[in-house]
Structures are given as structure tokens and as C-alpha cells.
Specification:
The chain is of the alpha+beta class. About 40% of the residues lie in helices and about 25% in strands. Helix 6 crosses helix 9 (about 275-285), helix 7 packs across helix 8 (about 215-230) and helix 7 crosses helix 11.
């Protein structure tokens, strides 16, 4: 099923409207084997009040034998989660659709906020809606997913106010580092399309250094080019003396911007290029009409042992607020097959990930 032609316009002003729910993202996923099914809910005046782009994929868990289908709604469905009646209706229809499509299970990771701020700190607040939704989902037979695809928590910058206001919201050390990068001859500019492979190479270096797995070059170049061509993304590159030292891909949709991919080389780190890079990204996002900038990812547990803690401290320094969500949920349509999928498949995936890591080392060297 093809996604509707005016899909982006229909969803842009919904609560939680997300770049991963756009036509462009569905097209990216289509190229790696997913098909798309768009679901829309309207009120009595024909106004769209809820939507979900459901991605469906047939897999052969063992690489052979019978195929089975799984569903995933990345960062959706999009709706006002505090509207109990609407919530019930949408969940009912998603469950029906999953059964009709013969899925083993459907996964979703909507932005249902359970609170903001770091737990235990004075500024932290809990959001009662998150608790209600969690309870609801459990009663309906949804399970908190053992496999989180996207980050559960994130850190978000408020782009409202003047640049002076932004500086005030930053930590003192971050302000110092930003000025340092400006004084030390770091230059940030929009990358040309033919420089995207350079950014990928830096991304592969970053992945190797920070020990996370990435896909092959063609996938990322495909994603970046598609969104850049649609006017929904820009690639920024930071240079010192004409040498590329860091970069990021900035995505836009509705009133939000996202920092989905960041990359850096070990060169000139003492000149703090990442601070100027993020500052320029904030300025671009604001000029694009965005009111918030999602820095994409915060730890599950806020302590120094967490692998994301270092990156999070950087985001925190920029003045970001932590948003905690309820994470990914699975609705097992066929519980036995779901159990096999969760227990058997991860072991097979581990093997492919190890092979991928070996390949990545070659790409970096």
C-alpha cells in the first residue's frame, strides 16, 4: 500500500508529528524491504486528529523456511494521548489492522511522555498521562518491548527567545567552549552533496571509536540525499584550516528539528568544533521556523556508568531538557511465534552484528 500523496501535510500539525512518520522515511524503509500502510483518524469535521504510518516487513527468521510478518510504527501513532476515547479507538484499530495483516506482532514507540528532567533532581516532573497510557497498554495485552529501536529518552533544546536567551540556558562551561571554537578558527558551513561520503567516512570513524554499529554507506547516503532533496534536511560540516573535523545531519519537520546523525574525527578536538556546529544547527533550525531542537538520545539511567553519559553531558551543557518516554511496546498477535522471534532471532542477529563490525573496521581503516 502506497502512502498518501499529501501525507506529510496531514500529519505536520498533529501532536508528536515526527520525521520518522513522514513519506520520506517510509520510502527509505521501502528500499530495505518494508511496505507502508497509512492509518488516519478524523473528527466529525473531517479534521485529522490521529495518524500512524505502519511499516510491515516479511522476514524468514531462520533465513529459510516459512516467512512471517512483523509491524512497526516508528515514533507513532501521533495523537493527543490525554484524550482517552481517541486513544482507545486508535489502539483498537491498530490491533485489528495487525490481525488483518497476519502479523506476529506490532511494535510502536510513540512519544508518550512519562516525565521531564533527570529523576531525583529538583526540576524533574512526572507526567500523569504517561502513567495512564502505560496502565492502559498493559491491560490491553501490550508488552514493554525487550527491543527498543529508538532511544527511550531524549534531550530537547527550546529555540524560543533570542540567542542571548539560548546562551543563558547553557551551562557556563558550554558557553566558554562555544566562544573558544569561535576564536580558534572553526568554520561551520552547509556541506555540498558530493561531500556526503566524507561525512559518512567520519561517521564510520565515530562508530568505530564509540563502539556502535552502523549500516553500509549506500543506506546513509540514500537517507541523507532523500531528505536534503525534499528540503527536510541539511548537512553541516565543521572545518579547521580547510580540514573537515566534524559534521551533523539536521532534519526538519513541522515545528521541530532533529540531530539524528553526528560525526567527528579525532583532529582538532581541543578547538571544540562540536559546540559551534550545534550552535549553527540551532540558528538554522530557528530560521526554518522550528521552536524545538531534539538532540536525539539521552541515557536510560542517569549515572556515569551509562555508555551515553558523556554524550548526554554535552547535550545537558547546551541547555537541553530531558524528556522521558514510555519507550517501545509490542502487541503480540500470535504469542508463540512472538516468543520464538524474541528468543531465537536475537542470537542470530548477534552473529550478523559481529560480521558487520568486522566490515566496519575495514571501512574505517
Amino acid at each position: 500500500v502506497m502512502i498518501e500523496s499529501n501525507w506529510n501535510d496531514q500529519i505536520a500539525s498533529l501532536p508528536g508529528a515526527h520525521v520518522l512518520q513522514t513519506t520520506e522515511w517510509a520510502e527509505v524503509k521501502r528500499e530495505v524491504g518494508w511496505r507502508s500502510r497509512s492509518l488516519v483518524w478524523k473528527d466529525e469535521h473531517e479534521k485529522v486528529i490521529g495518524a500512524a504510518n505502519l511499516l510491515i516487513r516479511s522476514v524468514r527468521p531462520l533465513g529459510f523456511g516459512p516467512g512471517v510478518s512483523v509491524g512497526y510504527i516508528p515514533r507513532g501513532p501521533m495523537l493527543d494521548w490525554s484524550d482517552t476515547e481517541l486513544r482507545e479507538k486508535i489502539l483498537d484499530e491498530i490491533e485489528q489492522c495487525a490481525r488483518k495483516e497476519g502479523l506476529i506482532f506490532v511494535k510502536m514507540d510513540p512519544e508518550v511522555e512519562i516525565g521531564c528532567g533527570i529523576p531525583g533532581e529538583e526540576s524533574a516532573e512526572e507526567n500523569p498521562v504517561g502513567g495512564d497510557v502505560t496502565e492502559d497498554l498493559q491491560q490491553r495485552g501490550w508488552r514493554c518491548s525487550p527491543e527498543q529501536v529508538q532511544f527511550k529518552n531524549t534531550a530537547v533544546l527550546n529555540l524560543e527567545g533570542t540567542e542571548e536567551d539560548w546562551l543563558k540556558r547553557m551551562k557556563q562551561k558550554a558557553r566558554y567552549n562555544l566562544r573558544l571554537s569561535q576564536r580558534n578558527g572553526v568554520i561551520v558551513r552547509v556541506a555540498r552533496k558530493d561531500e556526503l561520503p566524507t561525512l559518512y567516512h567520519m561517521y564510520a570513524q565515530t562508530a568505530s571509536r564509540d563502539n556502535f554499529i552502523i549500516r553500509e554507506e549506500s543506506y546513509y547516503l540514500g537517507v541523507w540525499e532523500r531528505f536534503i532533496d525534499a528540503g527536510m534536511a541539511e548537512a553541516l560540516i565543521a572545518e579547521v584550516e580547510g580540514q573537515s573535523v566534524a559534521g551533523l545531519i539536521l532534519f526538519y519537520f513541522g515545528k521541530r528539528a532533529w540531530y539524528l546523525y553526528g560525526m567527528s574525527s579525532p583532529l582538532h578536538r581541543e578547538k571544540m568544533p562540536n559546540y559551534l556546529l550545534q550552535w549553527e544547527a540551532m540558528c538554522k533550525a530557528k530560521a526554518h521556523g522550528c521552536t524545538t531542537y531534539d538532540l536525539w538520545g539521552a541515557p536510560d539511567v542517569f549515572d556515569r556508568e551509562d555508555s551515553m553519559y558523556g554524550v548526554f553531558r554535552f547535550k545537558d551543557g547546551l541547555g537541553a531538557t530531558v524528556i522521558r518516554t514510555s519507550g517501545a511496546w509490542d502487541y503480540p498477535v500470535r504469542p508463540f511465534l512472538y516468543f520464538l522471534y524474541q528468543k531465537v532471532l536475537p542470537r542470530l542477529l548477534m552473529v550478523t552484528r559481529l560480521l558487520r563490525r568486522g566490515k566496519l573496521q575495514q571501512e574505517v581503516s
